[in-house]
Structure formats: C-alpha cells, structure tokens
Design brief:
The chain has a two-stranded antiparallel sheet with strand order 1-2. With about 500 residues, the protein is an all-alpha fold. The protein has 24 helices and two strands. Helix content is about 65%, strand content about 0%. The termini are far apart.
Length: about 500
C-alpha cells in the first residue's frame, strides 16, 4: 500500500497541493492539472474582458498567453517541461533556417521522432508505468500543432492557389510566424495541457480580434443588416461556457462515484475470468468501458470551455440562428453515446485529432492514404502494444460493419418501426464492438490483452471476419454518390472556413 501511495504523490512538478491530493484521494498530478485548468478558466475570462483586442495589442496578448502556458507546464511537470519547450524551439529553427520546400517533412520527422522516443522510453525504460508526471499528453498536442503549422506554411509559401483545395487555401500561411506568434500558438495557456489543437490562422485571428467577424461575413443577416462588419456584435460565450461546465460537473461526478467502482483491470482478474459466466463478463466489459469515458469527456469539455471563456471557438450561426461555440470542440457526447455505426462513433470522438490526421496525412498521401493515416495515428498515440491491438482489431470490424450495412440496411428503411428496431440493434452492436476494440487501448500490454480476448473467445474477431467474407459477394452496388471514401472528420474546420450552419452531430456521415 505504501508503494501505491508513493506513486500517487510522486511528481517532478509542484508539490504545493500535496495536502489537497491527500484529502480528496486523487493523485498529485491530477490535482495539479485540475488546479491549472480551473485557474485557466478564470484567467480566460480576464483575458477576454481585460486584455481584449480593444484594450491590448496583439503582442501583449501573445506574451501573456505564452507566459501563463509555460508557467502551467512548469507547475505540472517541472523539469520534464523541458522536453516540450525543446521540441518547440528546435522546430522554430527549422522553420527559420530550413529549406521551405521541405519544411513540412523536417518538422514531421523531428516532432514525431522526438515524440516516439519519449513514448518508447515510457514503455521500455519505465516498464509500462504511466508516470504520475506524464508529460506525453502536452507533447502530443504540441506535435500536432507543430506539424500542422509546417504543412500549412508549406502550402502558403510553396504552392499556388490552384494546387490547393478550398480549405487548404483558406488556412495556408503566407508568411513565417514571428517567434512570439510561434510560441503563443504552441504554448498558450488555453490549450497547452490538454489541447485541443487548432489552426494557426484561426488562433492568430483570435489574438488580433478578427475571430468572430470573419465568420459573420458569411451571415449578413446576423449583423443587423450592416455592410462590411465594421461593428462586430458582442457575442458572449458565457452561455456556452456554463453549459460545458455543467457537463464537466456531471462527468466528474461519474468519475468519482461510478468509474472507480468499475475498474478496467477487473476484466482480466483471474477469479473473475475463471468463475464468471460469459454473459457476466460481457456485461461488465460493456459497463466498465462506458464508465471509462467520463474522464475524457471531463478533460476535453473543460478545455473547450476554457477556450470559449477567452472568446475563442466561435464557429458560426447555427440553423436556429443562435451562435455556436464548437469550432474546436474535441467530442460530441450525444453523437458518441447514440452512435449506430463504428464510423459515427469515431467521427464524434477526438475530433480535432481526426482533423489533424486529415490535414497532414490523408489529404497529402499519394496512395495508401487510409493505411498511412492509421499508421500515423498509432505512432502518435504511442508504442504500447495495446494501442496496436486496437487499431488492428478495428480493421475487420469496420469492413464487416460496412458489408452488413450495405447488405441489409435497405430492408429496414421502409417504416419507422423497422428503422427504430434497426437503430436499436445497431446501437447495441456498435457499443459492444467499441468496448471490445478499445479494451486493449486501456489494458496496454500484450499479456493483459490476450487474457481479455481469450475470456471473450475472440468472438468479435470471428463474427467480423465471417460476416465480411459471407457478405462480400452479396453486397448491393453502392450508390454512385457514396462511392467516395470519407476521410477522418473535418467538419469543424471546414464549417469554420465556410461559416455554414452547424450540424448537431456527424450521424449523416455514412461510410
């Protein structure tokens, strides 16, 4: 027990909140993270009200955002924050001194290479230990920002407009960023700890006070009939922030009272595996995976609320005429919990990472785009074997889900009752398949993963492969409009560029 307590309170960051950690029963790194995010929420309101573009210059806003961000890193990670600062500094030198025609390649190799080295040390040096001071999360976010900026800089300085898609042209960077702009984009306090990643031009627009007005240009009616938007309406994010904080409160309650009572590792407990029935094991796996989600919901929703509180994240005017603040939201909880297909679930989970993968890989690869995108996603997440079990398992499940959907879905669209029954069955199947697929992602090691899959008799693997083979020759020809493979979701980014009404979720994206 003493060793476990030592691990809880071990950190290279600040130990000021050690009494709080001992009182609430959370590890010190979790308490430090939560304290920084709550401070960031207060600081974000102050940043929007007292350091608004009307009261402070962009240089001041950049400097304050950067200093707060670096302070958070030092508070949470101590000397480990040097890893993050070093990779940012090296990649800025690459942008300044490197060949602009290859800057995107240099940045990708440097940032992803350094991240991979850190991931490898985490597995093989620390022997699968998830350190109480785990700096890999912020390093993963910084890697996304560094590489996305490098690709967009290459678009802006090395390609002609006609060589770019509409979205790439809109987000292309035409001039190298200054040191302060680069540091602010990568290390600002709004996203330095948990993200989300956002586009450089959108962030600069926010700092310079053009974030809202550039989106309202697509909605003349939203500006009281004015031409040119000389007067930007005061669109307060307060309502959006309050709603997201309520979600955070509910998620924290679930984490404290439900998640802890359904530990993931109990799925591989020797006594449980050997004595519980298959149905009992399947039921526990389902609920333990559901209970593992609130901690992600909490972290990502709180990060979204922090950005909104600072005035960042305005997407546009939705279909009901109300402002939406979901530009950089990382998840759609309703879309996740009601997903009736594997792809719909993925489209609503870790949205900004999907946009990053699309931006730097899927849209750029000359061939084998899907395989390369999966490979990059796996490397970015880390080198734990469980991650690769998850990605490999997802392949036959995705193929089978597509085959089943194409073969039988049209039989159930004739009436509302049949469609409802189909949706209920596919929802249950999707949630069970998701749980089966992501379990190795949480168990991490090969041994634990194989114990779990043996206890499940590899049933999802077997069913998926049999369904894919059996239905391969029976699939109906696809509708011509659906012959294009849908890449990872980029709805937030493309919507922001066009300032279109915001869809409630991604359920209309069917592959």
């Amino acid at each position: 027990m003493g060793g476990r307590e030592d691990a809880m309170f071990k950190t290279t960051g600040s130990r000021w909140l050690l009494p709080v950690s001992a009182t609430v029963g959370l590890s010190l790194d979790q308490v430090n993270f939560l304290a920084c995010q709550l401070f960031a929420l207060v600081a974000a309101f102050w940043f929007r009200l007292c350091l608004s573009p009307n009261h402070a210059s962009p240089a001041v806003r950049h400097m304050v955002a950067t200093l707060f961000g670096i302070t958070f890193l030092l508070f949470c990670f101590g000397w480990y924050s040097g890893h993050i600062l070093a990779v940012v500094a090296v990649n800025y030198l690459l942008i300044l001194k490197g060949d602009i025609n290859n800057v995107h390649r240099y940045s990708m190799v440097t940032a992803m290479g350094y991240l991979t080295v850190c991931h490898v040390s985490r597995v093989f040096i620390f022997n699968y230990g998830i350190l109480s001071t785990d700096f890999s999360g912020p390093l993963m976010i910084v890697t996304q920002k560094i590489t996305m900026l490098a690709f967009q800089l290459h678009d802006g300085m090395c390609k002609k407009s006609e060589q770019l898609t509409v979205e790439q042209n809109h987000l292309a960077i035409r001039v190298r960023p200054s040191l302060m702009e680069y540091l602010s984009y990568n290390l600002n306090f709004l996203s330095v700890l948990v993200g989300p990643c956002s586009n450089y031009k959108e962030y600069i627009d926010f700092i310079e006070g053009k974030h809202i007005s550039c989106r309202l240009k697509q909605h003349p009616g939203a500006c009281n009939g004015q031409n040119g938007h000389d007067k930007t309406p005061d669109l307060s994010p307060l309502g959006a922030v309050c709603k997201k904080l309520l979600v955070c409160s509910a998620c924290m309650s679930c984490f404290l009272f439900i998640t802890r009572s359904l530990p993931i590792n109990y799925n591989i407990d020797d006594h449980f595996v050997s004595h519980a029935s298959f149905l009992t094991r399947l039921t526990y796996a389902f609920f333990s995976i559901q209970a593992a989600r609130p901690k992600f919901y909490f972290a990502w929703t709180l990060a979204d609320a922090v950005n909104n509180a600072a005035g960042y994240g305005f997407l546009g005017i939705d279909e009901s005429g109300r402002p939406s603040w979901d530009l950089i939201s990382n998840l759609n909880i309703i879309g996740i919990e009601t997903a009736t297909s594997f792809k719909t679930f993925i489209d609503n989970w870790n949205i900004q990472t999907g946009i990053w993968l699309k931006t730097v890989c899927y849209d750029r690869a000359p061939k084998h785009r899907l395989a390369l995108t999966f490979l990059l996603s796996a490397l970015w997440h880390g080198v734990y074997p469980g991650y690769y079990f998850t990605f490999i398992t997802a392949i036959p499940i995705t193929i089978a889900a597509r085959a089943i959907r194409r073969s039988i879905r049209h039989y159930f669209t004739g009436s509302r009752a049949l469609k409802l029954g189909y949706d209920v069955v596919t929802w249950a199947a999707t949630q069970l398949a998701i749980g089966y697929t992501v379990m190795p992602f949480l168990l991490l090691s090969v041994d634990h993963t194989l114990i779990y899959y043996r206890s499940m008799y590899f049933h999802v693997h077997i069913i998926s492969i049999l369904a894919a083979v059996a239905l391969h020759r029976k699939q109906k020809p696809r509708d011509p409009s659906a012959t294009k493979l849908t890449p990872p979701s980029s709805s937030s980014s493309s919507s922001s560029a066009q300032c279109q009404p915001v869809p409630s979720n991604n359920n209309d994206k069917i592959n």
